[in-house]
Amino acid sequence: MNNFWLFVFLTILTTACNFSPKEVPNAQEMLRRELHAIDWDRVDQYPTYDSCDTISDLNQSVVCFFEQFNSEIFHVLKSDSIVKLSTIDSVLFAVTINAESELHFETLEINEKLLPKLMMDSIMLYNREQFTEIHPASKRGVPVTTQFQLQINLKED
Fold first, then answer.
1. Which of 8, 16, 32, 49 is the most buried (most CB within 10 A)?
2. For residue 138, which phi and psi values (nearest 5 degrees)?
């Protein structure tokens, strides 16, 4: 009977323990593969307003954001006395929304004979606090800085 228990014990011992070396994944290789797999040109979630947050469809959420953002910029420019006096009909901005939800505007195209770029930049900097809070874009749950170009038409049709 003792031989039987010894046999069972040795059988369990040899079959339960895997003596083959386990392959441990290389951390550097895993990081390299993961960084290669990430699309650095796209974000998982675009910047958004609270009012657009409830929209589940990504494309509709982006449209909602740009419509509201365009409307706010239009309102700021139309209410500014210097812009009212000028006869500019459109402005092209480079808009940056950083990870802390701060807005930065840079005027890319404007008729400088009517209104200098520096003046338009200072108008947008001065009125920056009038914008509704924007939640920044995110990549894998981490807030990131995004930049895009936005054409604002000031002519009313």
1. 49
2. -140, 150
Please give the span between the terminal C-alpha atoms of the chain, in angstroms, as a whole number. Answer: 101
Query: Domain range holding 82?
Result: 50-153
Q: What amino acid occupies position 110?
A: I
> Structurally, how many domains does the chain consist of?
1
Summarised one tens digit per residue, pLDDT across range 98-141 is 999 899 999 898 887 778 888 888 888 898 888 899 999 988 88
16 in a domain, yes or no? no
| 23 φ/ψ angles, rounded to the nearest 5 degrees | -85, 115
What CA–CA distances, in Å, run from 140 to 17, 68, 116?
A: 39, 25, 40
**Residue in the structure block whose two tokens are 């009909």:** 89
Instruction: Please answer whether residues 72 and 134 qualify as being in contact, where contact means their C-beta atoms are separated by less than 8 angstroms.
Output: no
CA 9 to CA 46: how far, in whole Å?
61
What single-letter amino acid sits at 1? Answer: M
Query: Is residue 24 assigned to a domain?
Result: no
What pTM was estimated for this model as a whole? 0.71
